[in-house]
Every structure is written in C-alpha cells, then in structure tokens.
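Re: duplicated header lines in exported structure tokens

Our pipeline writes sequence and tokens for each protein into one text file. With two proteins the header for the second block appears twice in some exports. Here is an export where it did not happen, for reference. First protein block:
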Amino acid sequence: MRSMTKTRETVGKLFRVSDNRIPAIDPLAGIYPSNNAPVIRIAEDGEREGIISSWGFVLPQKDKAPKRVTNFRDDNLGSPFWRSSFETRRCLVPTTSFAEPKGRSPAIWHWFALGQDRPLFAFAGIWRSFRGAVKKDGPVVDLEVHSFMTTTPNPLVATIHPNRMPVILTTDEEFDIWLNGSADEARSLVRSYPAENMAIVQSAAEKVDMLDEC
C-alpha cells in the first residue's frame, strides 16, 4: 500500500513532464492493488508523459481468478514475466509514502517516507499494456498496468518488514537513467535506500495515510 498526496503540478515539475502530457491527478491517501494511479514513462516520440495506470501486473491462473502482482524482486529479473518490461518499459511511480503491517488482530500499519513532510519521490517501476480478463470468467478489458521493484530492506524498514523494500529513486539523474538507460545502467540504481534518509511518519491500525497534503 502506498500514497501519492501531491498535486498534478508538483508531479509534473519534479519529473519534468510538460503540462500537456500529464493527466488530471487527484492526491491519493491510500493506493491499493488494482487501483489507478499516475506513472511517468517515455512516450513513442521519446518525451516523458504521465498516464493513469492500474497497479499490478495481471497473472492468469488456471481455473482461478487472475492475480494482481504489485511488485517484482531485483533477483528475479530473468523471469519471462518481468524481463521484457524491465528491459524496454520502465517507468517512475510517484509516491509520498508507503506502508507495511506488523502484527495481527489488529495489524499496525507503519508508514515510511523520506521525511516528516513526505516529499515526493519515485518507485522504480515497469509497465505494460494488458488485454484480457481481470476477474474469473470476467469480460476482456484493455488496461495499462504497472508494478515496481523491491530489494533488500534497509535497517529501518527491516524493523517492520524484514524481507524486502521498494527501490527508491529521488534525483533527476536517477529518473533519467531509469527511464532512458540500458538494462545494465538501470540495474546500477538497484539498492536499499539509506535508512538515515527515511522516517516512520505514522503508525496506526488504519490502513490509509491520514495526512492531508497539497
């Protein structure tokens, strides 16, 4: 689960997307799998564009409902399910915070951000166009979908989620390499984000980030 509580103008400015190439964006306090959210990618003419995309690649399952796969591991890039998207269809996933649960009944959700004011950053994402059913025996639909990469957690995230954390990008150079670089150059960005540059900004039983930002 994640949030993106900044305005369209803030997103466009940070990721250097022209005003006529970014759609309407509503601040989102809680983004869940299969929800629509903005991503930044390279258009056919080579320029950056913002689109609204559904969170989670769609994995068909025999005799079951398709599964939405919201993230992929940095050590699993050889999988045919991910490889072509990583090599040719990378995107930036604008984010202001993300949450991980700890415990049960109730789980306590811990929201991580890059500071108490929750500045905007990006997850290292991939995208693809999907055509098919997203529900068991459901109709065929056309969707733009995205997922993001995870890696080994830093010490702060590991206190709540000991296995993985998102790959976080924060600088214009990183944005450019992820969008335009070769696969090997993109791999050079894969690392745990420094724990000293992050904070737990909220801990609560509520799943939604309650901060109202602009």
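Second protein block, exported in the same file:
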Amino acid sequence: MSLVTLEAEAGVARLTLHREGRSNALTAELLEELLAALDRLGNPRALVLSGAGRNFSTGGDVARFAAEVEAGNGRAYAQRTVGALNEAILRLAALPCPVIARVQGALTGGALGLVLAADLVVMTPGAFIQPWYAVVGFAPDGGWTGMLADRIGADRVRALHLLNGRVTAAEAQALGLAQAVSGDPDGVIAGWLSVLAAHEPGSMAAVKRLLARDPAPSLAAELAAFVDRIETPEVRAGMARFLHSLERA
C-alpha cells in the first residue's frame, strides 16, 4: 500500500499520509512518496493535507533512525530524511493555491513543518503539538527554530523545547497556528473550500507570494545540526531510552 495517497476531485487535491499503524511517523520513503505526489499535483484550486488514523504524524521514526545509526548509516539516512522533509515543506509553502491541513491527535517532531507550510489549519479538540527533541536528543528540524519562532516568538519556542511543552489545540488557535478547532474538521474544511471556490486564484496566489518569508536558510541550518548530532553517544542513548519507554507503555 502507498505511504501517501493523492486524490483529486472538482479542483481539490487531497494528500493523505498512510502509515497509520505507526502514527504516520516520517521515514525517508514516506517523504519521498510525498514529494512524488507533489510532482503529480497539477494545478488544483486547493490542497487538503491530512494523516490517516488516530494521529496526523508523530514526526521522525525514532526506531528507524536507531536502526540506521546501528548499521553505520545514521548521517546519510538523516541527510536523506530531513532533506526530503525540508523539500516537502518548501514545496508545500510555495504552492500558489491555498493549502489546508487537517490535524488530529499528535503533531510532534518534524511533522510540524508540514502543517506550518499550510495556509489554513483545523485541529480536532484533542489534537496537540509537542517537540520531543530534548527527550530523544535530536536537534530540532521541520521548522521549529525558524518557521515556528517567526510565528510565535523565539522565547515561546525555547521554553517548549527545554520543557518539552505541549500546545493544545485551543492554545494553537490562540497563537494563530490553527484557524479552527472542531470535532467536525471535515465540515470545517468543506466550508472553507466553498468560500475559496468563489475567490479568484490569482488574487489568493498574490496574497501568499507577498506574505511569504523564505524558510530555506533556517531549514538548512536545522538539517546540518540534526545530521551532526545523529550518531553521537548522547543521541544513541536517548533513542534507546525513548524506545524502551514505548515498549513499557
């Protein structure tokens, strides 16, 4: 089964992450399928991005990173995976059409970047955002230190990382990271799509272009820091502790 599906109907494209048995944890293969789907996207009037199952995505697959480090391939795999994540974020953010993200459950680690690239976000009431980097030992990726800091301020982001803080859906809406919180996210999206269908695509594209800030430099810095840390003894130990805690849960 595909790790990412692309469906299109009536000018609306729908991209869905389909690794629900692992909470849509990001691997190089999933992200490369996402990039391939973006290659096939065409020119939709709107794009809806979602994750199948209980969680939107729990970010990078720690078990896979641990296995690649153990095999002596940690740096190359980190470069491949985070590099693909960065490319997906940049390409989503650069789309001229409105991008809508549907978020349920956990939105953690680098998966946040996919949502930060969206223009409109709806979260279910129980959804949340959390970093987890300091627990595992990774350097932040996915726009946490650049894109998110630009949105909510460096001080808030610093505290989130140091305390592994959790941002609830209601808090995300108050911070402007989500435009709606609803137990019926599909209904909210249907309403947004109805509104967007009545608007001129060129005007919406101009708004996006004029408001855009280039996240590429900060994403590149995050990638370099992530790769530099991935094979350190601290990260090896952190991944082992994290995976052991999941086994006991």
